[in-house]
Records
---
Amino acid sequence: MANVRKTRSDGVGALLLKGLCVLLVTVLVLVVFLYFVMLDLCWGHTEISRNLFVRTVDETSAVKFLARIYLSPEEIEAILHPPVPEAPSFVETDTSLVEINIPAQGSEAYVDPLGYVDEDGDGIILVPLRGGNYIGYMMIVLDPSRVIMGCIPESLGGRGYKVEEYVAAFDAVAGINGGGFYDPGGGGDGSLPDTLLVRDGKYYCEDLGVGQGFVGIDDKYILHVGFRSVQDAKDANIQEGCGFKPGPILVQNGEIAPEETLASGRNPRTAIGQRGADGAILLLVIEGRQPSRLGATYLEEAEVMLRFGAVNACNLDGGSSSMMWYNGEYINNTASIIGIRPLPSSFIVLKEGRADS
């Protein structure tokens, strides 16, 4: 019997060893395959494909190094920062393009100016999106006074909060991730924003400035994009706002941003905008970094905003941070391999509006 048990043990060990070898070979084959796929993207495909690959990985926190395997620092720099025409002069948000027209909430279905239906009368319309390389969700908040900056000022520098925690803290019904944050190597704790934060008319982290992508809502519930300084935000009487330092602005005063400012890779995205027809706030989240959906470019993001009637829109933090919470659950899938990430800010949707009308 002892010999039999030894034989069985040897058989199990051999099977385990064989399985391990198969696993290692499979991983090696995948690594080699991915290496040559990326090599082909960099040198075998068109310049457009190469540039898209470089910009995509550069927009991540953890895998920027992939482009450096195939290209020199000078080549990468030329792709990421090509010579561009002189930057256009500062453009102030034209508030006259937005007409605030808040429908009454009720049990009856409401059809918005673009034909989308608020079937349950809660003032929120959720529209699924599908593009060639992404899926996403557009949340139309019919009453702009319901959208505020979700942040916990006393926690800044101490801890970040998940979107669902911000929604719960303000007894709200929905939310998306907000501005950028200090995130070395993708390991940041979401407690340190990378731009100014404004909550209920109070200004925090002013020393961080506004970057290229600050967005704020003023005391008349009009969304502004593009500021030169913190003082600009104060002059516009911004009450709620945050930023993603590189931005970019997607749509301003009814026009899509210059093409050179929208050069990007494909990644998960989050954006906020406002319709001119009724003042509804548009909250956009796009999934990505998955085999069936890589994500959207900035240009595609801007085109979606225009399609939904945005006169002003700005890109927020994306990638692993992109999340949308609505009615007790996350609507989209996270791209983060470590789960839902904590953040210093969010845009959340209150249960009721604050406007007088």
---
Amino acid sequence: MYRFICIVTVGLVLQLLVSGCNADGGDEQNEIATPKIEHISKTDSVAYGHGTGKTCRVEAIINADYPVYYGNDSLTRKLQRVYIKDVLGVFQDSISVDDAFTEASDMLLRQFGESEDEIMYGVVPNVQILNYKATIDVSVFRNSGGVLTFCKHEVVNKDGEATVDMHHYINFDLSAMRKIEIFDLFEEAALQDVSQLLKEKLLKQLNVDDEDALTGLGYFNLDNITANDNFYFDENGVTWNYVTYEIACYSVGETQITLDYDALAGYITPKSVLYNR
């Protein structure tokens, strides 16, 4: 087994919006104290040997916008902690930036490891050993009205062919310095109604009449069309993103559904950050 680790800081990011994660950055008149962002790139790789003498190789790549300063030292530490936990998925207190990115890339590698199918392939002569490349791109999607939104784009290639391609949106309330959850937008009792609005909107945008028609288009898990935490909001309303395989087959890809604020007005909790939209 071998491992190669490198980390490079390449300076202040002015426009780092990956494919599928593009936004206008918000209305300048509504901008509140913009965090200073730097771009961090990290690559890890590991190789697993097998009895045939062949090797399974895994490469993990993280390219991420990272908040290096916001307001003062105390606010900076708070923002970095929630970023490390909610964007990188590293649940360790008092971890350094370098160590957080190392742990995040290690977690990518550990998703594969010496899995059962790789071991099986490894002991069968003349069978190609799999090569994986897992990439995470994190970009600032929007910063407006005291809300900072990141887009996390994850891609996994298996022998050069993409098997996973999905986007997650993570919103931070800069005044409370925490991730915005769905219950920060709507009361729990309203979520069923909001989910029904999402199904009705999907029918309308696909120009079909009922859920049977959706099934015919490849939407196999309609129960997952719910008001979940993978959302962002802008001047148009709240947009939910459903990743590949979440509600539909791979050929359909990701699905986005936007509900405008007029449609949501009756369901917004009195303390919702949406009142600032």
